[in-house]
Fold this protein.
Amino acid sequence: MAIKIVKTAIPFQDEQSIISTNAFCFLPDEASKVAPALSIFTHGFTSHKGSILNWSLRLAEEGIPSLLFDLPGHYLGGFTEVTSFDAFKRNAAQMFESATQILKDHLLAELGHSIIDKETKVIIGGHSLGALLSLKACDALAFSNFQSTQVIAVGFGLPPEGVTHIFNTPFYKSTLAIRAQLVSEAISPEVIFPWIKKEKESLNLTDKNIYLLTGADDVVVGKDGTERLRDQLQALGNNVVLEKPAKLAHHLPENAAPHIKKWLKDQGFFQN
């Protein structure tokens, strides 16, 4: 299958101005049957869209158009600056909605394929910080217009209880001086990590379809962080499935691609 990759950009409302971040649309071969689904993904903190490139490639191979975008203020994806953490908290998750419309526009322009929301399934997801943002995004009114919405959260769970988390170890702290230079000062580690923790613990979603995928060797999420997140989300009335392969280290999110592909195939997202 000849997948077409289209360069595009996703808007983000910073405090004083609208900026844009880089994105790729992955469009199935014109001669193939486009599946009645769309997928939107983004990456983890201090990373970039290339870290999960094959998520979108695998789905486009199966006829599902996909868009992969960089988060603002993340220099590995581009040199966009975020000047306000408040703006990031308010508006980063909304980029999934903008990305969905932009993917629909490119499908029409490039392939002449028009999307009818009520007949289309939408998949949104990400790795780590990207997973949190996709969970925050899935409650948006725009996604309620689709036939169904599936959230895919990779490398994501609640912080550990009663033990020293890796974030608090001397080794990890020694890496933060480097990682802090890979993002805008407004979203530096000491600012964003406490917010991520708070947002995890206060997720208030109901009746969502959520697929949690974390490796048993993911030392950032820890031993039972994803299990406890699953229990929290299920208690709120969500349909949650947890998969925990033996090998899926936090720093290798690209290895999630075959698990995501199999899960979606089993759920009937691909064309026969």
